[in-house]
Amino acid sequence: MKIIHEKQDLTFLRWSHIRSSSGTAGTFLKSESNLDGSKIYYKLSRFDPLNGVVGHECVNELIVDRLLTVLGVEHLDYELINSRIEIEGKAYDTYLCASKDFKERGESKLALDDYYRLNAIKGESRYDFCVRCGWKEYIDRMIVLDYIILNRDRHGANIEVLRNSRKRTIRMAPLFDHGLSLLCFCNSDEEVSETDIMEDKRCQNFIGGFSCQENLKLIGEKKDVFPNKLYITDKEFIFDGLRGVVSDVFIDTVWNMIYKRYKVYENL
CB count, 10 Å around CB of 233? Predict the structure, then answer.
């Protein structure tokens, strides 16, 4: 949840190209380092070779990180770092995300879509499979979260199963990868202001359908899926330190989106 505003020299990082799975223009770049035996993963917002870093997905990661902290849900922690990086010999100044490996010693990871393919009963829905595995609470929280932030990219590899063969344990990975959410397709304050924050846009969901709103029906009768509630006063914590990183228009609109969609869930 930390923001490092002082410029850091990260030109030593080498970036690999990961095409967006949601069809957005541009490329998402990832890197990693291993300092003092601790592996750190880095990722950039949407990158355009002509215009540099043009997206704000890394800011979204921090916002959702803090939202999940407020709601009391286990998740991957991100740092937002003001950095100088180098890509193909050209330097760029940008904010990027850094996170630690969430696997415990001895654990291996498997995408949920692969785990489902290997273990589901014939005709069993993906949601029912997760319920049978004992993951209903986890999946219900994920479904509601994805509605609140309008997550466009909850495909089967963005949900992971962690296994420890020696200890014979299996668990769901902390929630991660929320960059393609909120106002991720807006490139200007004008686009932000014109966005219908309650619109149900088509999303890529491994569990349920293409509608985050329709997927709310999967959780059944109304109940509190989160340990904690969200209050208007939480805005200050969620956006602390972000003024100047993104515009006030962006901050106010994203907050309105989060809070209004949260109230829809609360009133189900």
Answer: 7
Task: Verify that 69 and 169 share a domain, yes or no.
Answer: no
The amino acid at residue 56 is: H
- Grouping H, G, I as helix, E, B as strand and the rest as coil, residue 103 is coil
For residue 18, give its domain range: 3-100
- Are 140 and 244 in a shared domain? yes
- pTM here is 0.93
- Per the listing, tokens 């904690």 go with 228
Query: In terms of domains, do 86 and 210 share one?
Result: no
Final residue of a structural domain among 35, 67, 100: 100
Cα–Cα distance, 193 to 131 (Å, whole number): 39
Last residue of a domain, one of 100, 116, 148: 100
Pair 96, 38: CB distance under 8 Å:
no
CB atoms closer than 10 angstroms to residue 51: 9
CA-to-CA distance for 195 and 201, rounded, in angstroms? 11
Alpha helices in 74-198 (DSSP H): 112-119, 126-132, 136-149, 189-194
Q: What is the CA radius of gyration of the chain?
A: 19
Going by C-beta distance under 8 Å and a sequence separation of 6 or more, which residues neighbour residue 11? 84, 85, 86, 91
Per-residue pLDDT of the chain (268 residues; tens, 9 = 90+): 599 999 999 999 999 865 443 333 346 899 999 877 788 999 999 998 888 889 999 999 999 999 999 999 999 999 999 999 999 899 999 999 999 999 988 999 999 999 999 999 999 999 999 999 999 999 999 999 999 999 999 999 999 999 998 999 999 999 999 999 999 999 999 999 999 999 999 999 999 999 999 999 999 876 789 999 999 999 999 999 999 999 999 999 999 999 999 999 998 8
